[in-house]
Design goal:
The chain is mostly helical and 79 residues long. The chain has one domain. It is built from two helices and no strands. Helix 1 runs antiparallel to helix 2.
Amino acid sequence: MAGASRRREQTLSQLANKATWLLVMILFSALVAACTGFLTSLDGTPPSKALLQAGAAFGSTAILCLAAVPAIHQLRKHR
């Protein structure tokens, strides 16, 4: 019974770890998007275009962050 409890704790710990990293990726992507939108609006661009560029920055940053995780796992396996 103690083995099952320990496995459950490890699984919950891994899930919490993944959720934390996902939150960090989303917040980092939001920061990049906010900076992009702010800098674009300073240039005199209409708000609709600045928002569109901020959304593109958020999406591309999120994809890069999510793609980096499997790459890092593969690099760690080959050590």
